[in-house]
Design brief:
The protein has helices at residues 24-30, 34-38, 52-65, 75-87, 91-100, 115-131, 147-151, 154-166, and strands at residues 41-46, 70-74, 103-109, 135-140, 168-173. By secondary structure, it is α/β, with parallel strands linked by helices. The chain has one domain: P-loop containing nucleotide triphosphate hydrolases (Rossmann fold). Strands 2-3-4-1-5 form a five-stranded parallel beta sheet, with helices on both faces. Helix 4 (75-87) packs antiparallel against helix 5, helix 4 (75-87) crosses helix 6 (115-131) and helix 6 (115-131) runs parallel beside helix 8. The structure holds adenosine-5'-diphosphate and magnesium ion.
Length: 190
């Protein structure tokens, strides 16, 4: 599959009217890919179904079309992969794989507990990409201020947030889940 995307979504598929908290101008600016040339990052924060993964794939897809090296990774799978590599003394090789692309998308940080070792490995990766000025997009349901819970350590969480957020577009999406757009929970229609 292209760049390991689970599916392809574009900005043309995005219903901006449904999710007015998404800063359209900023997202369209990101789609010009200048942020990749600068090595800037993107953090998309919001509850499930608000379009974080969709937007990250849409931007990643633009980058693929522009012949950038892009890799999409589910956060917990990425962490499991690094832990597995570490146990097999193949960590350096695996790190290089995740380091080399000009855009890495880490999807769904915070959905699953990553443990201390996982947190340390994720910090190493983010730190190396930061040093190399390579762009990372992170999607998460957990606001950055509560990443201590995700990393099991406020020190590690701050170190990761520090690098990711230094040159970063922070996009907070506060609307409803698109998955539930035709469902009324607790409404008068049941
Ligand atoms: P999240 O990653 O925030 O949990 P997703 O990006 O996976 O949410 O969105 C859930 C589903 O709804 C996906 O199929 C996505 O394409 C679709 N979707 C979400 N927001 C929109 C939107 N504003 N316009 C069109 N499709 C959307
Ligand atoms: Mg998602």
């Amino acid at each position: 599959r292209m760049a390991n995307f689970p599916y392809i979504k574009t900005l043309a598929d995005f219903d901006w009217g449904f999710q007015p908290s998404v800063p359209r101008g900023l997202v369209e600016q990101l789609a010009t890919l200048e942020f990749i040339d600068r090595g800037d990052n993107v953090v998309l924060v919001g509850s499930p179904g608000v379009g974080k993964t969709h937007l990250s794939i849409a931007i990643g897809h633009e980058a693929v079309m522009a012949r950038k090296q892009v890799y999409f990774a589910d956060c917990s799978r990425l962490v499991e992969d690094l832990k597995h590599a570490s146990a097999k003394e193949a960590l350096a090789r695996r790190m290089r794989f995740y380091e080399h692309c000009s855009l890495l998308i880490i999807d769904e940080l915070g959905y699953l507990d990553i443990g201390k070792e996982g947190a340390d490995l994720l910090f190493q990766l983010v730190n190396r990409r930061y040093a190399l000025k390579r762009s990372t997009i992170v999607t998460t349901n957990v606001p950055v201020g509560r990443w201590g819970d995700v990393f099991g350590s406020n020190v590690t969480a701050s170190a990761v947030a520090d690098r990711l957020c230094h040159h970063c577009a922070m996009i907070k999406i506060t609307g409803r889940s698109y998955r539930l757009k035709d469902v009324s929970i607790g409404g008068e229609d049941g």
